[in-house]
Structure formats: structure tokens, C-alpha cells
Specification:
Layout lengths: L2 E4 L4 E3 L11 E4 L6 E4 L1 E3 L4 E2 L7 E4 L9 E2 L2 E2 L1 E2 L10 E2 L3 E3 L15 E6 L2 E11 L2 E4 L3 H4 L13 E3 L10 E5 L4 E4 L12 E4 L5 E4 L6 E2 L1 E4 L2 E3 L14 E3 L2 E2 L19 E6 L1 E2 L2 E3 L2 E5 L2 E5 L7 E3 L2 E5 L4 E3 L4 H4 L9 E6 L2 E5 L9 E3 L3 E6 L2 E3 L6 E3 L33 E3 L2 E3 L11 E3 L2 E8 L2 E5 L7 E3 L4 E6 L2 E5 L4 E4 L5 E2 L3 E2 L4 E4 L6 E2 L3 E2 L8 H6 L28 E6 L2 E5 L9 E8 L2 E6 L3 E4 L7 E10 L11 E4 L12 E3 L20 E2 L8 E20 L6 E7 L6 E6 L8 E21 L6 E11 L15 E6 L2 E5 L9 E8 L2 E6 L3 E4 L7 E10 L11 E4 L11 E4 L20 E2 L8 E20 ...
Parallel strand pairs: 1-4, 2-20, 3-22, 4-23, 10-17, 20-26, 21-27, 22-28, 23-29, 26-30, 28-31, 29-32, 30-33, 31-34, 32-35, 33-36, 34-37, 35-38, 36-39, 37-40, 38-41, 39-42, 40-43, 41-44, 42-45, 43-46, 44-47, 45-48, 46-49, 47-50, 48-51, 49-52, 50-53
Antiparallel strand pairs: 5-19, 6-7, 7-18, 8-9, 8-19, 11-12, 12-15, 13-14, 13-16, 14-15, 17-18, 24-25, 54-55, 55-58, 56-57, 56-59, 59-60, 61-63, 62-67, 63-66, 63-67, 64-65, 64-66, 68-69, 69-72, 70-71, 70-73, 73-74, 75-77, 76-81, 77-80, 77-81, 78-79, 78-80
């Protein structure tokens, strides 16, 4: 029957109340009825509380509550303006400058509410006196445990009679048993329905592992008017995450991790089997709406409305050790379906809570829900930050004190599909529309329509700490302010076949083994595939629960014309088709390959990558308009891709540098989850070079970078590693997609292909995949050059020699020489001389040379030239050095101490020029000076010498152009006599004069 059924205590069911013998126990609204199960009490008898008649009060007796509802709307506990001024933290609370706070009548009622990142923390006040606010313990202690996420100054103050100054605010004076309220315009308290919730748990289904509550359903019932008083305790509400509270008095944050307390529900199920919630409304609730605890299995949550709830709307499974690593499978929360529910305006008081949360669960399906208007994350799946996964989280030494298990958690096979999620992250940060934690084998995020995410959503789809084994495909995203995908230590994650107006995504913190490719960027929301957008959210029979605005346009565009294809690459088809027409306008097209949606576009053309050479495909196209009406498909196009393959695949590769495990061969291994990356901290440019193994007419390349945008690069082709021709020059503007394509109708002949990253937006050169395409060249020359003559080696410095050799001959012409040092290739040149640096003093070396022609026929090696480098008689070593200035710890003596890890640096903040001077001790014959600067480039300098320290002559003038290497050599045409050497840095690019080594040598 219709009506409000007021509870004074929890309605509790046990296994004795189960359905048996194939029958269900159903608590159901009568046909046409709208029953309400309420934990609230009606408040009447309002009288004016002030002479102005703006505030009213009513006697309520000895009650306690944290919520008040007037005519079905949640009203606001009396609070201050946002970010009140004058607060400073102390070890026990705050100092403040507002004298009015000293006069508050009941300061222990007051709460400090502080928003920071993903948390909204609430801490109660103990006392106020003499401009000091002392906070209650252990709340204040716990609020400072997480380093970097400590409680801040108040975002607002809450719950004082003195703060009641805005219509819609209320205050409960528990000492006097009086409730104060300032009505909004149009509210008449003599007729208004004013409710204070007094019961925490409205309905509990309390089973055990041996005696579960089974086969019970609730249908068509409204659950309303609950409260939750734990945040009013001395522990307050100090979140770990998602509304889970730190309690007790642990010494460190890590010690709390396995103890965070779950927020209870208005309706709770523990060890329930086959429990159903269909067509209910959960509203005006002071904690979580519906909470499934440990061991709840086979739950169906379908067609419900969750609106105006203080914390999370739907909470599935626990986050304790028993949930993650149960000893008994009966404790697993599994086989939960959450379908066709409306979740909106939840977490409206505990803003760090979420729309739908699944902790450690097995086979949870969250599908076709409409989730919107939330302060933080929409749907959150997983727990543990990887720490409770098998083997722990290798990102954290010692696993942050959490025990390391040798078994996986129960989390697996979670499916988040076909939901509509929008208007989220309205007050908190570091979340997303869909947010995950830890391993979830078989996890799927698919078919969701996500729109309206602001910058605080770090990723519309956000795989955070330890997230693993997720597949993201077929999602449609628009109006994404920051980035559509974010992996923060996300591993073995696939993201392909998604559609977004925002191409930006990023990975960080050892996000390894993941593949992010084949995703389509469109120009606007109305270019997204209508098939995804129209299918997401509530299915047709449930849309009455929360109707969208009416749409007047129901006429679909005409079907597109028959497509045609160009196949320049064996793995890529470029499709075009005659455009459709529409009574309003065609806004986009969807492209289907072999019946599967693969791309979308706002124009009548599209590029389709990822095809297989030699394979036959069928293609069809549909059109859509702004209302989402989709046309009939075009006629079918049948395309057989040309033969051929990636010439660079698994071929020998070199690079300018590489970092850790990101070696150059990983850019040509055919695996889009591995990459080459230049050395950490090195500046642009960087390069990677592939030896194709034979000569080709190269006509194209496909490069997949690490980042979604921000690279400038050049691709060149060479027959001999010396003479290079440009295949593609993309140095004028940054890339705008992760995968960039190059094709030319004028091939460039060669065997070697080099990609140079000239700009990386400070990310460094980093490439997941580098593919090269072309056709083999016919080689008719098989005659090798003669062997070069025996080289001559001239020592210039203890670590530097010049190698020269008599030229070889060839029937077509010698084009290059390969120089070997002790049998190891060190250089390729088209000259007959080579300067070789980096040698060790007083060491024997052997040099040989091999000649090559244009066909790369190689000669026999020359006879070896053997040389012993001179001893390192550095004339400046440990001599007296002075300078124009110096900075702390970088004295001039460190430039002449023979240690290239120490340096002289001019005084901090001083302008150019700067100088350093060395006294060699006596007049000395000097033929060469070697300067090793701090940076690899960017210095202009002058070297001078003198016999008396007064009259100076120029040894080397390098003031016209900046250095391009870290070590610079200066040689005198004939040796000079000098006692003093002075290096003046005339330009340093704003870095200041800074020298690791200043060395001087006589003749050799």
C-alpha cells in the first residue's frame, strides 16, 4: 500500500526469512502503490527564532542527525563562506583571526570541512579559546598521516548556530533539543514536510557463510530518511579513498591501509544469495544507498533510482583481507549485476564518495546505468593499489608494510559496459568517469558513453595504481577537458577501438605491457558513432526512470554512396564515399569492417590502419545527424589488401641513446606494448636508425609514438649511412596523434632509415613502433672494392687520434668506409680520414678500414695500424686556478683536479662573461687545450695565453658560434709558450660558466 512506513529501528532479516524450495520472498509495492520505508521523523511546531522572522525553531527532543529534508530536498547544515580567511595550522589545530569564533556558544558542535584532491575531510572541534581552535583526536592525528595529502585550512566551517545565515541552512542544538531552520523563498513551515532522519540502517539482510539469507527481493519500494553519525565522533571522517575512513590511532598512514572502515548503507546485505532489488528508489539517505557486504552472491540490482544520497550510491563487496584473500569461497562477493539504474546527486555530503563502487569482487557486471551529477568519480572498481595482488606492488619498496600474498585477489571478470556517465568531478580531483585499482583479469570497459568531464578528472577512463589486465574498447567520449585515458602504474592494459573528441592520453609510473592503439579521434560529439551513444545508458524499457529531453528530429540521413578505397600501404586502406543528405544536417559517419564498427569521421573519407597484407575485407558506412539518427548502411565495398610487409620488423637497429629497458630493438619488434626511449634526461634531438638488410625504394613509414601528441621529427633514407635524403619532414609542427603516417609517390632509395626526433615537448624521443614500407631494388653490382691501404694513426692528445688511409678503388666507385677499432665498428665515413676521441692514455689500439660501394659490397679489411696513445701529461693538472667568481662547492680548482665529476661554476645568478685562469707554474710549450663543459652545448668562449699574466694572446676564438659538444678541442697551429691560460665564457645560454675539466698539453 502507499504511504510512509516509519521505522524506529532496523528491519532485519536472517536466513530464517529466506525463500525456500524454489520460492522467493518478495517485498513489493502493491499495483499502483508507492510505499516509503523511512527512518525519519516529521518535525512540526515551528516558531520564529529571531525578531526578523528569518529563522525558525522547533522542539525535537534528544535526537541526533546529520541531515534534514524539506519537501524531499536535502538542506544544508549551517556553514561559513568558502575558504574563510585568517587560519593557520598548529600541532593541535588552528589559529584564526576572526574574533567572532571566540564567542561561539557550542564550539564542540563545530566541524572543519577541508577539501583536498580526492578527499573531503571532516574533523570535529574540541574547543575554541583565545584565537586558538583545538581539534578532536584521533581525527586530527589521522588527518595528517598521509604525507602530501594532509588536511588543509578549512574549506568551510559547519554546524554552528552562529553560521545560520542563508536560506536553506539548519542547525540542531542537541543541548537544548531544538532544531533551527532558515526557510527558502516559497517554503511555508506550517505546511512543509520537514523530516529528520534518525535510523542508520533501514533494512539489513544478515546472513552467515553457513546460513545465508537467500531468495529475497524488494520491488517498487522507496527507501528514505537514514542518517549516519560516525562522522560526528572524535574520529570524524578522514578518508583513505571513496569514503572509507581511517579510524583508531595508528602511527603511520601505511599502518592504516588494511583497516579503513567502510561506510554503511541504508540497505545492507551480508552473505546474501540470490537477493534482488528491482524498481526501487533510494533517496534522502545519510550514508551509502545500497551496500553489499562480504559473501553476497548472485545479487540483481536492476531498474532502481539512487538520488540524493550522502555517500556512495551502490557499494559492492568489501575491501578487507577476508574479501581479497578469503580462506573460504563462501566469503567471496560474486555474480553481481547492476543494470539500468539511475545514479545521480549521490556523494552530495561526503564528496569523496563515488557513484558505484565495486571492491574485491568476482564477476561483477555494471551495465546500462545512467550515472551523472557527481562530485567525484562515476564508477570505481578494485582496491588495494596493487599491494594486495599476488607478489605485491613492485613500485613500492617493502610493499608499504602490507603483507605480500602468493595468491591473486578475488577481483576478476568485472565488466563495465554500456553506461552513460557525465557531469562528474564537480568538486574533487584525481578521479574519472571510470576508475580502477589493482589486478582484474578479464576486466572489460566497453560501450560506455562518457561526456562532460572537467580537468580534475585525470583520465575519463583512469587505470590507477596496480590496475592490470583491463580491456578498453568501443567506448565513446566527448567534451573531455583533460585526457580520455590515463594509466598510472597500469600494466597489461589494452585500449583499442575507442572513439573520442579528445585525443590526449598518458601513461606513467612503470605502466608497462600496455597497448594503446587503433583509437579514433573525431571533431565533435555529434561525430561519435550513434550506435554506441544510442545504446549506452538506460535501455528503452527503463528510460522512464530519468527521461532525457524530448527530441523532435526522428528522420535519419540517406544512406551513403558506395565506398572506394586506396591502399598505399599493405596494412592501411583509405576509404572515400559519396556523402549522405539529411533534413537538418549530416554530422558524422560510422565505418564498419566485416560488420564490426572500426572508425568514425566527420567527413566522407577515413583512414583505416591495422589491416593484414593480402587479406580481403568488406566495408560499409552509415551516416548520422545531431539527434543520433543513423542511416541505413551503404552498399558493401570488397577490398583485397596488397602484399608486402614491414621492412623494419626485427631488423638491426641503433639509436642515439636509450633508457633502462627501453632499448632500440623494441621499436621494431612488432609489439605495441614495448618501446624505445632515449636516455633519461638527455635533450632533443634523438634518433633511431634501422638497417633494412638490403636496398629498397622506400615509399612510406608508420610511426607510433609514446605520447598522443607533441613530437617533431624527420625521416631520412641512406644507401650507406652517410648520404641521406629526406623521406618526410615533420619538424615544423607537433604531431597531433600517437600514430603518424608518411607516404610518397616518389620513393627514396636506400638501405638505412633514420628517424630523428627534433622536438619532444620535453618528453624525450620515445617510440612504440617504427614501420618502414617499400619495394626491393634490383642490384646488379656484385664486385667489391679493393682493400684500402694500411692506415696511419697520428696521436693528437692522450685520448684523441687522427686515422687516415690510402683510398680504395671500385668498378663503380667507393662511396663509404667503415672504420674498426680493435675489431669493433666505430664509424662510417666517405672521407679517408677520421678523428677518434674517447681513447685511454698510454693504451695500445688497432685500427682497420673496410671500403664499400653504392651496392654496399664490402672490401677485405685493410692491414691493421697499431698505435699506443701518449701518456696523459696534463700540464694544468692540480695547478693553481683562479676565477672571476664561484658558486658554493664549485671552486676553480675543481676544473683542474683531473676528476670529470667535479666542476667550477661561476657565482649563482651572475651574468656572462665569466672566466677561469690556470697558472702552469713556468713558461711551457702548449699545443692543445681540452675544455669539458657542464652542458652538451650552448657555450661561446675565448682561450688566451700569457707569459706574465698581463699581456694576453688568443689561442682559440669560439665566440661566434655556440659549442655543439660537451668536450671542445683547441689546437695551436704551432706550439705557443705560456705560463698562464685563461678561458673566458662570453655566452652560456643563461646557464653560467661551468667547466668540468680544463686540460693543457704540449706536443706529441
Amino acid at each position: 500500500m502507499s504511504g510512509t512506513y516509519q521505522l524506529s529501528r532496523t528491519f532485519a532479516l536472517t536466513s530464517r526469512d529466506s525463500g525456500r524450495d524454489g520460492h522467493r520472498i518478495v517485498y513489493e509495492a502493491a499495483p499502483g502503490a508507492h510505499p516509503v520505508i523511512s527512518g525519519g521523523k516529521q518535525v512540526t511546531g515551528w516558531t520564529p527564532a529571531d525578531p526578523a522572522g528569518k529563522v525558525y525553531k522547533a522542539k525535537v527532543g534528544a535526537i541526533d542527525t546529520r541531515q534534514l529534508y524539506v519537501n524531499g530536498e536535502s538542506e544544508t547544515r549551517a556553514r561559513s563562506d568558502k575558504n574563510p580567511a585568517g587560519f593557520s595550522q598548529t600541532s593541535t589545530g588552528y589559529t584564526f583571526t576572526d574574533p567572532a569564533l571566540n564567542a561561539y556558544k557550542r564550539p564542540s558542535d563545530l566541524e572543519v570541512v577541508s577539501s583536498w584532491g580526492w578527499k573531503l575531510m571532516r574533523c570535529p572541534v574540541q574547543s575554541i579559546a583565545d584565537f586558538k581552535m583545538t581539534m578532536q583526536q584521533p581525527c586530527w592525528h589521522n588527518a595528517h598521516l598521509q604525507q602530501g595529502q594532509e588536511i588543509q585550512n578549512p574549506t568551510w566551517l559547519e554546524n554552528a548556530r552562529e553560521l545560520l545565515d542563508t536560506p536553506g541552512e539548519w542547525y540542531l542544538d542537541k543541548g537544548a533539543g531544538e532544531l533551527y531552520y532558515m526557510p527558502k523563498a516559497g517554503q511555508d513551515l506550517s505546511t512543509a514536510n520537514v523530516t529528520v532522519p534518525l535510523v542508520q540502517d533501514l533494512v539489513d539482510l544478515n546472513g552467515t557463510k553457513s546460513a545465508p539469507v537467500s531468495n529475497v527481493s524488494f520491488r517498487g519500494i522507496t527507501f528514505a530518511d537514514s542518517t549516519w553519525l560516525a562522522p560526528s565522533s572524535s574520529e570524524g571522517l578522514i578518508e583513505g579513498q571513496a569514503g572509507f575512513r581511517m579510524v583508531g590511532n595508528d602511527p603511520t598512514f601505511d599502518a592504516t591501509r588494511l583497516k579503513w572502515q567502510k561506510t554503511p548503507g541504508a540497505v545492507n546485505v551480508g552473505h546474501g544469495h540470490g537477493i534482488g532489488f528491482e524498481g526501487n528508489t533510494f533517496t534522502q539517505l545519510g550514508a551509502v544507498g545500497l551496500n553489499l557486504d562480504t559473501g553476497t552472491q548472485g545479487t540483481d540490482i536492476t531498474g532502481n533510482v539512487f538520488r540524493q544520497i550522502a555517500a556512495t550510491g551502490i557499494q559492492i563487496g568489501g575491501v578487507e583481507v577476508i574479501d581479497a584473500h578469503p580462506d573460504d569461497s563462501r566469503d567471496i562477493t560474486r555474480n553481481t549485476t547492476v543494470a539500468n539504474n539511475v545514479v545521480t546527486k549521490v556523494a552530495d555530503q561526503y564528496n569523496g564518495s563515488v557513484g558505484i563502487l565495486a571492491g574485491y569482487t568476482d564477476r561483477t557486471t555494471i551495465t546500462h546505468n545512467k550515472v551523472y551529477d557527481l562530485p567525484y568519480t562515476g564508477i570505481s572498481v578494485g582496491w588495494g593499489w596493487g599491494l594486495t595482488d599476488k607478489g605485491g606492488d613492485t613500485n613500492y619498496p617493502g610493499n608499504l608494510g602490507v603483507p605480500i600474498w602468493d595468491t591473486p585477489t578475488t577481483s576478476r571478470d568485472t565488466r563495465v559496459t554500456d553506461n552513460e556517465i557525465y557531469d562528474i568531478m564537480k568538486s574533487q580531483a584525481d578521479g574519472g568517469a571510470i576508475y580502477t585499482l589493482s589486478s582484474n583479469p578479464g576486466g572489460v570497459v566497453s560501450g560506455n558513453y562518457i561526456h562532460g568531464t572537467p580537468p580534475p578528472a585525470y583520465g575519463a577512463i583512469y587505470h590507477d595504481e596496480g590496475s592490470r589486465y583491463w580491456t578498453n574498447t568501443g567506448n565513446a567520449l566527448c567534451d573531455i577537458a583533460y585526457q580520455w585515458l590515463f594509466l598510472n602504474h597500469g600494466m597489461d592494459i589494452d585500449a583499442t577501438g575507442n572513439f573520442t573528441t579528445q585525443p590526449a592520453y598518458s601513461t606513467q609510473a612503470n605502466s608497462t605491457g600496455s597497448t594503446i592503439t587503433g583509437n579514433t579521434t573525431v571533431g565533435s560529439c555529434d561525430q561519435l558513432p550513434a550506435s554506441i551513444v544510442n545504446n549506452a545508458g538506460l535501455q528503452a524499457s527503463y528510460r522512464h526512470l530519468d527521461p532525457d529531453p524530448a527530441v523532435a528530429d526522428h528522420r535519419a540521413p540517406s544512406r551513403p554512396g558506395t565506398p572506394s578505397a586506396v591502399t598505399d600501404f599493405p596494412t592501411i586502406a583509405d576509404l572515400t564515399w559519396p556523402a549522405s543528405t539529411d533534413d537538418t544536417a549530416v554530422t558524422g559517419y560510422s565505418v564498419y569492417r566485416d560488420g564490426k564498427l572500426v572508425s568514425a569521421t566527420g567527413t566522407a573519407s577515413v583512414r583505416l590502419p591495422g589491416l593484414t597484407a593480402g587479406k580481403t575485407y568488406t566495408f560499409r558506412v552509415t551516416a548520422r545527424d545531431a539527434a543520433g539518427n543513423e542511416s541505413a548502411p551503404s552498399a558493401t565495398l570488397r577490398v583485397t589488401m596488397p602484399s608486402g610487409g614491414d621492412l623494419a620488423l626485427k631488423k638491426p637497429v641503433t639509436a642515439s641513446s636509450y633508457s633502462e629497458a627501453n632499448t632500440p630493438e623494441k621499436a621494431v619488434d612488432g609489439d605495441l606494448s614495448t618501446r624505445w626511449a632515449q636516455g633519461l634526461g638527455l635533450p632533443d634531438p634523438s634518433w633511431i636508425q634501422v638497417d633494412l638488410g638490403a636496398s629498397y625504394d622506400v615509399n612510406g613509414a608508420i610511426t607510433t609514438f609514446e605520447k598522443a601528441s607533441g613530437y617533431k621529427y624527420r625521416i631520412e633514407v641512406s644507401p650507406d649511412e652517410i648520404h641521406w635524403k629526406t623521406l618526410a619532414d615533420r619538424t615544423a609542427a607537433n604531431t597531433t596523434a600517437a600514430t603518424d603516417y608518411t607516404h610518397t609517390d616518389t620513393p627514396v632509395a636506400g638501405r638505412f632509415v633514420r628517424l630523428t626526433v627534433t622536438g619532444s615537448s620535453w618528453n624525450g624521443g620515445s617510440i612504440y613502433d617504427f614501420q618502414v614500407y617499400g619495394t626491393p631494388r634490383t642490384v646488379t653490382d656484385h664486385t667489391a672494392p679493393t682493400a684500402p691501404g694500411q692506415p696511419t694513426v697520428k696521436p693528437l692528445l692522450p685520448g684523441l687520434v687522427d686515422v687516415s688511409w690510402p683510398a680504395a678503388t671500385d668498378d663503380t666507385g667507393v662511396t663509404s668506409y667503415v672504420v674498426y677499432q680493435d675489431g669493433k665498428r666505430i664509424a662510417v665515413t666517405d672521407a679517408t680520414t677520421l678523428r677518434v676521441p674517447g681513447l685511454t692514455a698510454a693504451t695500445s689500439y688497432s685500427f682497420t678500414v673496410v671500403a664499400r660501394d653504392e651496392a654496399l659490397n664490402a672490401s677485405a679489411p685493410s692491414k691493421a695500424a697499431v698505435v699506443t696513445t701518449p701518456a696523459d701529461d696534463d700540464l694544468a693538472l692540480n695547478r693553481t686556478a683562479t676565477a672571476s667568481s664561484e658558486s658554493d662547492g664549485h671552486a676553480p680548482a675543481k676544473a683542474v683536479d683531473g676528476d670529470l665529476s667535479t666542476r667550477w661554476a661561476q657565482g649563482l645568478g651572475l651574468p656572462d662573461p665569466s672566466w677561469i685562469q690556470v697558472d702552469l707554474g713556468k713558461d711551457t710549450s702548449v699545443s692543445a687545450v681540452v675544455t669539458t663543459f657542464e652542458l652538451t652545448s650552448g657555450y661561446k668562449y675565448r682561450l688566451e695565453y700569457s707569459t706574465d699574466g698581463q699581456n694576453w694572446s688568443t689561442f682559440e676564438d669560439h665566440t661566434a658560434a655556440s659549442t655543439t659538444t660537451q668536450t671542445d678541442y683547441a689546437f695551436a697551429g704551432t706550439p705557443v709558450t705560456a705560463r698562464y691560460l685563461r678561458l673566458t665564457v662570453t655566452g652560456s645560454g643563461g646557464n653560467g660558466g661551468s667547466v668540468y675539466g680544463l686540460q693543457a698539453y704540449g706536443g706529441f
